Amino acid sequence: MFHFSYVQEIYDEVREAKRYYLAWRNEEKIWNYNNCVVTVIGMNDNRARVVVRRKKSGHSKFMQSDFEVNLMMGIVVLNVRKYFNGNRIILAFDVEQSEDNIHRDLKEVKIWSDQEHETDDLYNEILQKINNKQDTGIIESDYVERNNSFMPVIYQPRVDAWKNFLREIHIHNGNDGSYQITLVFQDEMLRRHGILDGIYRYIRLLKYGRIVDIETFAFKDDQFFFKDIYSGKSNLFEDSIHNQELISAKYYFQDKNHPVIFVNTSNHALAPHDNNHDLWKWEYVPWSNKVPVKMGAKTRQEIDQSYQKKWIPY
């Protein structure tokens, strides 16, 4: 187990007139987390992605049961160095910075273990992955239980799950090697255009007869097809992204039954890459019985019908 530390601007999770958003304080803080698991992914151009996970447990009202899931954060490392602090070896990182003014990038990122050999082993692994200049397309994990069925692993920013949490994953087999994957979210709340959130909710009720947000995409031959829900490079602070893309998948734990999907925007646009590297994300491993998400095999049409409500506007 490792200790993970960084400096980041403090934010408050604010609810205002049913709108949820981050209020940055213009004040930085050192964030410390213990009992973390660290894995390393090779990348191109002398970089490596260091993935940090920590456990989160609680009680799900939706599932009416206790849950335990990983929270994950992945940082792109340009350089790593080690130094002694007393009798302890500390790893310090130069991390890739974002190109916008919305993210609050991590600073003074440090990782260490109480076991000196673990810190040394991690240091050598990071150097090796940086020098290999190879993107493996694999999301490494500490999760040991395996599953042979086709099930994507879903990542959603923790702060997006205030009221927007993922509640269902449906995987419909097309019998030709293709899959239709549908995600059902509790709600969809605007951030950039939060002032219009109430109007947008009213329009959704008129058009769909429901509040829950439903997103569907396809998978076949190592590729995703996102019709009107591809996020591109947009992040959680965007709420009106409707791009279309056919894009290659990345995989979870070297297993092609488990491609990874990142929920990148507030309107739940998706991609096989993470655009919110500075935020902790829920890691939904669907075959775990501890994850607070229901699994199913309904088609999109069946799901729409099950959530359709007889609703008459005033």
Question: Would you write up a description of this structure?
Answer:
The chain is mostly beta strands. The protein is built from 3 helices and 18 strands. The protein has a 6-stranded antiparallel β-barrel.
Overall body shape: globular
**Number of self-contained structural domains:** 2
Strand fraction: over 45%
Query: Helical residue percent?
Result: 10-25%
Content-based structural category: mainly beta
**Sheet having the most strands:** 6 strands, antiparallel, barrel
Q: Would you identify the regions where 5 or more consecutive residues have pLDDT less than 50?
A: 310-314
Order of helices and strands: EEEEEEHEEEEHEEEEEEEEH
Q: For the largest beta sheet, what order do the strands appear in spatially?
A: 1-2-3-4-5-6
**Alpha plus pi helix count:** 3
Cα-based radius of gyration, to the nearest Å: 20 Å
Number of strands: 18
Mean pLDDT: 83
What distance lies between the first and last C-alpha atoms, to the nearest angstrom?
57 Å
